[in-house]
Amino acid sequence: MADTVARSWQPEDEDDYEAASAELRERFGAWAAEEGLEVNPEAPESALHYKWGYLDGHLTRWERADLDEVYLELYPAKVIVDVDELDEVLEEARVFIRFLGDTGLLDEESDPAEVLIAHLSAIEGRFRTNMADFGRQSFGKRLWSQALAEGVALDDQTAVDAFIARFNAQPRPQRDAVSGSNRSPRQSRGRFTPPGTPPRPPSPRRRKRRR
Question: Is the whole-model pTM more than 0.85?
Answer without folding.
Answer: no
